[in-house]
Amino acid sequence: MTKKKTPTATPTDETKQAHQDLPFDPMALSKSLTEAYSQIQPIMQSWMQKQQEITMHHPGGMALDPMNATRAWVDFMQHLYSDPQKLTEMQAEYWRNWMTLWQDSARRMAGEDVTPHFAPDKGDRRFKNAAWQDSALFDFIKQSYLMSSRWMNDVVRKTEGLDPDTRRKVEFYTRQIVDAMAPSNFILTNPDVLQATIESNGENLVKGFQNLLEDLERGRGKLQISTTDYDAFKIGENIATTPGKVIYQNNLIQLIQYEPTTKDVYKRPLLIIPPWINKFYILDLRPDNSFIRYLLDKGQTVFIISWANPDKRLAMKTFADYMKDGILSALDAVEAATGEKDCNAIGYCLGGTLLTTALAWMKGRGKGEESRVASATFLTTLIDFEDAGDIKVFIDEEQLHAMESEMSERGFLAAQRLKDTFSLMRANDLIWSFVVNNYLLGREPFPFDLLYWNDDSTNMPAAMHSYYLRNMYIENKLTRPGAIKIDDVPIDAHKIDTPAYFLSTKEDHIAPWMATFSGARILGGDVQFTLAMSGHVAGVVNPPTSGKYGYWKNSNITSSPDTWLANAKHYEGSWWDDWIQWIEGKSGSKVPARKPGGGTLKPIENAPGSYVKARAE
């Protein structure tokens, strides 16, 4: 359908001004919506009929308050109303803002140039359509939303007397409400959707509804929003393609040794321990941003753990099993493959927490085994979980008890539960942007390897996950000497004297950098702390060729995080180039390159192996 031309308005022509403030033809929109509804109705009837034929089973049932939010809200409201004067002041401020906005809008309708009082934050992509600025109507909708949402967040922040956990929960839930109610998320208040509806005669809404039903079917009745084109990627073919061999496996891990790309390599090999919440190929997405290829090109002999995607057969695997069958078994295999008694190790996120535990356990045994790890690199790793960020909203005794009930039936926590949690932590980017794109605009999501990886989550074994959440997030035992014991060996991270390099990212919403900084100060050896720009993934996977971001360094980690940053020196570019100099100083002399299978362990299959290809149902 040909888009109707919007009449040109002048400040003195009220009729034309009114038409300008509606950047669409109301009659054309009404016709398009009617046409869309007539096509959507039979699709909905067909889908409902299919659902009646499906027997759904929800382990553990659906709790009335699965996030244990009610108690936090009640506590917040009690504290809010306990100070009537302050509440009255905040309400008065709200109405003053409304009066200002109404006056500005009236002046603009009269033809005046008015500077907006409430502008979107830098980088807020929800309001990039020109109509949000050019149309007085849409500018008013935008500003009223921004004003109200900021006021709501301010009310929570200014309410005194809340304990930190309750405040964090209420702030988080308030952001969820605010994000959900953005005008960009609704048909009649999103100019992009209105334009698409008129131009396509409502076909965008029909296609969007079909996309919605497909995502409901993919989730077996629960909405699983598609974030990328899942048919565009295949592990081992166009992602995770660095050549190598699986040289060792047990029921929990496969160990991959990669083909060298240099004639000579450093004598000391390098072992990478990724997290088991996601899969290792975040470090090997494409040749141009592969951290693994970068290491190979720098002369490292690289090994990486590929964790199994657990089902109920691994339900009883414990955190200690992950240490023993994971890290310790991998250390044995690296020695068998290279003949070297020690190696450098990298732990990423949860893999770094496990590496900390393993180092403390080997140190605690008093047999000198900790020397098997010559240096330890910790990427976005939490050791001190006291201020672990928004993830703690989802972790308390009540929620953990409900989670344990669910896991007792299945034997694991389903990967989708974790994915939903992390999506809520970045709702605008990982939920609402796709609601608009997929369901309102009726478009297919763009093929994006990072989002393919993000969707490729893994299950968590019941025993391990329960132990991890309770002992780390709830009780923060890793910070207390001897609070954790494995095989009667007390775990004391303070006694770890292995040279360490901590890499954290400034905008990390999963492992906040101030919390990782606190953990770095616990270790007893020489520690280098580096803070990179960006977030948990983009800040880590930032090759030098990208020319993006930068990082801060400061050798003094005895001060507070704020003081450390204030005195840190900023460098442009990727932290990779800084870290590679550090690790090369701990990698020994050069030796002829090692081929996978050249030691006592023979290849089992080609990289990336079979474990990484197992998708969670």
Automatic annotation (TrEMBL):
Pfam family, one: PhaC_N
Domain of life of the source: Bacteria
GO biological process: poly-hydroxybutyrate biosynthetic process
Name of the protein this chain belongs to: Polyhydroxyalkanoic acid synthase
InterPro entries: AB_hydrolase_fold, PHA/PHB_synthase, PHA_synth_I, PhaC_N
Residue span of region Disordered: 1-24
Compartment annotation: Cytoplasm
GO cellular component, one term: cytoplasm
Gene Ontology molecular function, alphabetical: acyltransferase activity
Annotated ranges, domain Poly-beta-hydroxybutyrate polymerase N-terminal: 124-295
Organismal lineage: Bacteria, Pseudomonadati, Bdellovibrionota, Bdellovibrionia, Bdellovibrionales
Source species of the chain: Micavibrio aeruginosavorus EPB
